[in-house]
Specification:
The complex is a heterodimer of chains A (324) and B (403).
Chain A lengths: L1 H28 L20 E5 L10 H4 L9 E4 L1 E2 L13 E8 L3 E9 L16 E7 L22 E7 H8 L7 H4 L13 H4 L1 H9 L2 H4 L13 E6 L6 E2 L6 E7 L2 E9 L15 E9 L11 E2 L4 E5 L6
Parallel strand pairs in A: 1-4, 1-14
Antiparallel strand pairs in A: 2-4, 3-13, 4-5, 5-11, 6-7, 6-12, 7-8, 8-9, 10-11, 12-13, 12-14
Chain B lengths: L1 E5 L4 E5 L9 E7 L8 H10 L12 E5 L8 H9 L6 E2 L12 E2 L4 H8 L12 H4 L10 E2 L13 E2 L1 E5 L8 H5 L5 E3 L6 E3 L9 H5 L6 E3 L4 E3 L5 H4 L14 H4 L6 E6 L6 H8 L4 E2 L10 E4 L6 H8 L3 H9 L3 H7 L11 E5 L3 E7 L2 E6 L2 E5 L5 E6 L16
Parallel strand pairs in B: 3-16
Antiparallel strand pairs in B: 1-2, 3-14, 4-9, 5-6, 7-8, 10-11, 12-13, 15-16, 17-20, 18-19, 20-21
The chains are: A alpha+beta (324), B alpha+beta (403).
Chain lengths: 324, 403
Amino acid sequence: MKKTYSVLKRYGVALLSCAFLSTALFAAEETAPGVTGASEEEFTPAKEVLTIKYVDVGKPYHMDVETLKGFFNDAKGVTVQLQKQDKAFPNGGGSVSSAEVKAIHDGLVAYFKVTWSDPTKNARAIAVQEFRDAVALMFPLGAVEITPAEHFSPRMGDREKPTNLWHWKADWESDLLVKGELEDVEAQYPNMHDDFNLNPYSAYYHRELITSVEVLSGGRAANNLLSQPARGRTVEDLNAEGFGTLTTQAHQDVNGCSKYEDGVWTVIIYRSLITEDPHDVQFVPGGTSYFNMAVWNGGEQDRNGQKNISIQWHPVTLERVAWQ
Amino acid sequence: MTLVHNWHLGRRMEYPYFESRPKHQFAAIFNINRCIACQTCTMACKSAWTYNKGQEHMWWNNVETKPYGGYPQSWDVKTLKLIDNGENTWYTDEKDEKLSPYGVYEGDTIFEAAAKKNINQWAVGYIPEDKEWRSPNFGEDVAKSNKPDEYSSLPEHSRWFFYIQRLCNHCTYPGCLAACPRKAIYKRKEDGIVLIDQKRCRGYRKCVEQCPYKKPMYRGLTRVSEKCIACYPRIEGKDPLTKGRPMETRCMAACVGQIRLQGFLDDNPKNPVTWLIRHDKLALPLYPQFGTEPNIYYIPPRWAPRAYLRQMFGPGVDEAIDKFMVPSRERLAVMSLFRMTQTIIYEYKIEEGPKVFETTIHGKKFELYNDTVIGLGEDGQEVVRTTVEEPVYIRDPKHYNSI
């Protein structure tokens, strides 16, 4: 160590400039710090095409899995192989190996049904060590042709190659059942002491304190959608162009419903075929686009880059509407 | 990874971002010897920032008892275990005043341990579970003793405990900032304060996991993480009391025991904080081996076993305690500035006074001069003036027993 130290001391500047140089060289190869290069096969889309089949859904009274699942009977599913995310730090995932995707539309709305097996249901993220189950669908924005010659990263897109993501969260579904509010901390800690609810005179004596709840709830004051009560939806509409760029859209258009039974999650995510938002993917009859997906297993502490991903785009095409 | 210089470790180390030091770094010095664990700082912080719902477990400032206390429980031991490679030693034969004032650390930092273990994360860490955050004063006032019937004797106690005052270290190389995959955490260029962007945070808890000091905390109510904000509105001089001058944080200003001095680490040798840390080396960083270059500095307790203190504050402990026990003339003057004003002091001046006392401490000659020390604010104007000897006021006999 003594030797190393004196070498460092003597040639420190030279070593440092070498370090700068090598970092610069690496930077040319990497897309972001901690990200290693992608293989060529990632830029070749899968052969199997997911057809968004036309089905007359009518006007379902309840938008839930029980009501909607029957409409998917004739739709042909695509099985998406999932694997550990091993390119960008932090790496993780690998506990879910595949998911099945089926899709239908009724001329107005597209419905995507995703099923995967997960032995544990994690539908709350209030305790510090608890993480939610989640699934996300991703679409490239705009009309794109994805070929090995035309690189478009299947891992959250790339610079100048934006994607639109629909992120369903199990805990948002729980939130929705609490009269459209957030599940409160009492749901996790039923007998906790709370200065705000237990004091019978709190509204009278502590008006300032009560009204400051919003102000001192950083996430709410900053208008972070994750912190907002009364979101009214279970799916977040986002954009990304590469790792670490995930951004919530100002206008939320996607919704969904789910059911957990016998160790299997069934999640249906739906959105209008066409929206007015330029940051949304649009579905045109007969048109072809691509999708990719990821699944988070909360029981395995999956979140952010620690997820089960597919490393290939899958073509998706919208069946023409049979007008009668 | 890039190579950055960490002067606590006396060497370069790997970090995901380039070295980028602020002009003035938020810093503070805590004199452990004087702390009585009254928790006034803790409550000052709580009542300012974390009294709200979902923050019940949050103590951005806390005072814990060593060796048994810890908030969250055993946070330091658990992280020390993660970086332990059997060779976490210091090479202290060669030192450089500027680059390696304490010698060179030969072990692994949290970043290097992660790279060596190939865990594909920026730093090693763990997420303390909710039960570990629940009892912030667990182990309070519990002493460590080797023999049950042992009594303490000076100067070093065989039965001992001491208090450690903790808040976010606003590190130069923050583990939380490195860990965040979304870059939702940033370090301010103007004062080095580390903040979590509440809009960008998505509650992944990578910061909770990879901050070795466990100061970012997850808030279940808002589903995002929060941390100490160094009372930045006060630092920016927004409080009318100091007339636009930077003001110390709530926890510093509330300190009853007068153990705290807050300021900015900069290049000015006459800045009291810079002088005590960089020039006098009286105040030492907490667990420098983690490699984050923390910016809260401690004057180590003189009565606790040195081996324990060396693990906690690095190899500078012996020199710091020797200096504290027999303080020099300038050191005594600068230490008189602790808690004399809420306005942040940028520079000090000493006006020499008469010698009032002389003695021998542990075989060393000690002379007390009643110097006057003057603190200057950001604008160079005098903000405080005090003397080494506290003035004595004798009450008139006619007021005895009167109210």
